[in-house]
Every structure is written in C-alpha cells, then in structure tokens.
Structure prediction request, 223 residues.
Amino acid sequence: MKMADAKQKRNEQLKRWIGSETDLEPPVVKRQKTKVKFDDGAVFLAACSSGDTDEVLKLLHRGADINYANVDGLTALHQACIDDNVDWVKFLVENGANINQPDNEGWIPLHAAASCGYLDIAEFLIGQGAHVGAVNSEGDTPLDIAEEEAMEELLQNEVNRQGVDIEAARKEEERIMLRDARQWLNSGHINDVRHAKSGGTALHVAAAKGYTGVLKLLIQAGL
Prediction:
C-alpha cells in the first residue's frame, strides 16, 4: 500500500509540468507592443516537449542548458523517459544530457523508466552508465520501484553484475552528512549550502529523514 501511495503521489508530481512554465506557447506581443520574455530554460523545455529537434539544436547552439530543470527538478530527459520516447531519450543523451541528474525528489531518469516499465529506455540508460544504485528521497532505488517482472530482472541482473550494495547505497546520504557534520563541528566552519530550488538545509534534510546522529552534530556545530 505504501508503494502504491508513493507511486500515485509521484505520478501526480510528474504530470504537474502541464500548464506550468514548461508548457508554454512561444512569446507573444501584447497590444502595447510589450514583448513577453520567457525564461530561456522554459523555452528549451517547451521545444523539447514539442519534439522539435531543429529548434532544440538551435537553442543548444545558442547556449541553452540541456540539463535545465523545471520547478519540480524535472529535466527534458526525465520527461522523455516519462513519455516513453526512446528516440528523444537517445537524442538528449547524445547531445550531453546528464543521465544521473536527480529531480527534487531524488529521482534520476532511470527511476522514471523503471517506475513506468519502459524496458528499452532502461536498457539504454544503463548502457550509458545510469546508476542502478541511485537512491531517491524515499530511500528507493530503481529496482525498488519497478513492478514489471522483466524490469525487475533487468535491474537485479545489473545490480549483481556491478556488485552494487543496495543497503550501503541507502545509507550513503546519511554517511556523507555525518562526515560533513563532524568536519563542521571540529573546524568551527559551517559550509551548509541551501538546495537551489527547495531552499532546504542540512538541518531540514536530517530532520525530515530522521538522521538523529546528524541532527545532534549539526546542532552542536551551531546550526
């Protein structure tokens, strides 16, 4: 039940881009001749959503960021995976898209492909170096959220082939935060950077995820 609720919540988030900054018509001119200028990243995502490869290549040539993310942290590659558009996935990766960029919930594109059951996309991403041991904010790897047998088999075989320690991967974030918190406490210098989109701090993350050891050290360090 927990996984079903999580997937439902996730599916709602993945579709929120509709009507948001990524789902925009090209800039228009008002009667007062005032031009409406949209964020370059939003224009890029809109071009990707429309499937206009020529326009996307032009935007990239002009300096557009292929890894630009919307308010939910979704990139064009995330969206192509959600849309089951393997050709667009390949196009984006071939042009430099980061296959392991997480969204605001820690989902990399492989999480999206695994959740949706898109085997061909998952195989391609893995072949390009996608992290099968990537853990999202709920502590789930792509294997954890896969429901179709073929997808589970693909991911399990890759986990075994790479020798990925899933339990160690789940604890990696807490381990890194403990290390950083100890360094801050010992040095007296705190280097805590807020998340660019959510504004969250290490204290927020530790509290939300129940990292009590990290919380104790952060408070001792003065956060």
